[in-house]
Specification:
This protein is mostly beta strands. It has strands at 2-6, 9-12, 17-24, 30-38, 45-51, 56-58, 66-71, 76-81, 90-98, 101-104, 108-113.
């Protein structure tokens, strides 16, 4: 199983970006998918997750600004990021619990300029 993330880039504060992550390979079961991020000099932190039953969970810092969604049939998860702030600058990693194993994508850089 592989995760391919895309959609990062440079955006001004207050702008929006949409991240996508597609899982490929032999997939029997997806429990949940999500996004984590790691800013320079900081530990990786949870941004948002979504279960196969569409239950979502968000970090307090992104609630009301970010929206996670998924299309199980396409093994795809999205992260709509609105009202971006400079402190959202980080490498964003896709994460998924597939076939009872944890997988990580390669990361996509999001840079928010002030």
């Amino acid at each position: 199983v592989q995760l391919q993330a895309s959609g990062g880039g440079l955006v001004q504060a207050g702008g929006s970006l949409r991240l996508s992550c597609v899982a490929s390979g032999t997939i029997f079961w997806i429990n949940d998918m999500g996004w984590y991020r790691q800013a320079p000099g900081k530990q990786r932190e949870l941004v948002a997750t979504i279960t196969s039953g569409a239950t979502t969970n968000y970090a307090d810092s992104v609630k009301g600004r970010f929206t996670i969604s998924s299309i199980n049939a396409k093994s795809t998860v999205y992260l709509q990021m609105d009202s971006l702030k400079p402190e959202d600058t980080a490498v964003y990693y896709c994460n998924a619990n597939i076939n009872r194993q944890m997988y990580w994508g390669q990361g996509t850089l999001v840079t928010v300029s002030s």
